[in-house]
Each structure stands twice: as C-alpha cells, then as structure tokens.
User: Fold this.
Amino acid sequence: MSEQIIELDLGCRPEAAVSGAVLVSSEYSTFLTFNAMRPTGDGSKLESAGHAVAEFPLCHITKFGYPNDEARWGIPRYQVTSYGIYEVKNSEWIPEIVRLNRYRFPDTPEDTSTRHFLIAFHDSTFECLADDIKIELTAEPYERVFERISVRLLSE
Assistant:
C-alpha cells in the first residue's frame, strides 16, 4: 500500500511567510516551535495564533531542513502538501527503521504504534516518527517559550 499524506486539523498551521521553525531535541524529548496561523471565527481567513509549540512524545527520529516549499512542490511525494501539519499513513520510513534494528535485534516486532508526522514550512520541512503530537499555542515571547522548554529538558 502506498504512502498517503493526510492533513491534520490541530487548530493551527505554520505561517507561510516567516515560519520561524526551531527544533529542540534530546534523547528523551522533541519540541518544534513555529509561528502559527489559525482560522478566524467564521473560518474564511487566517489570523496570527502566536507561537506553536509542538511536542512529540516518544520521538524516535527526526529530519529537519530540505526540502523548502519550492523544491517540495516539485517532488511527487510532497505535491499534496502546503504549509501545514500532516500525518503520513502507510509510511515507508517506519518499516525501514524496524528493518535496520533487526540487524542487531532480529526479533524486533513490527511497529504498529509509531506515527509519521510531517510539517511543511516556507523554508524547510520537518518529519519525525513519534507516538503522538501535542500542540500548544502561546502568545508568550520566544525567550519565555525556550525557557520553558529548557527547564523541561534539563529536568530529564
């Protein structure tokens, strides 16, 4: 079965002009912050939603950077994406990680709980394999957002 990229409605999406995505990751926690937009009350337009803080519980692996929006729209796999938050169903990446793990641990079972997330920004693309995604919107200055993330990472 081929991969399917499904847009998730999590109440926001990356800002198209200046996404400002920043990845902060340790062995135990993964956070991605970005400038966010959300639908207005009548849903006809988008308005600033401040900063989004995306947390990925039990994140196994990440990719962040290439492709940007111009390159992404020329790559068949990404042609259905715009600036948004997606889940890749039937991901080819998950069985690849299982296959690689079996070199050392031959009894590694098929992975049925990990999900493949993709967030498309203006200048980059973020992908990860994690158990879930949690989004918090905040109007706090970035300094305060990173302070909270730092405290959390240092307490692990």
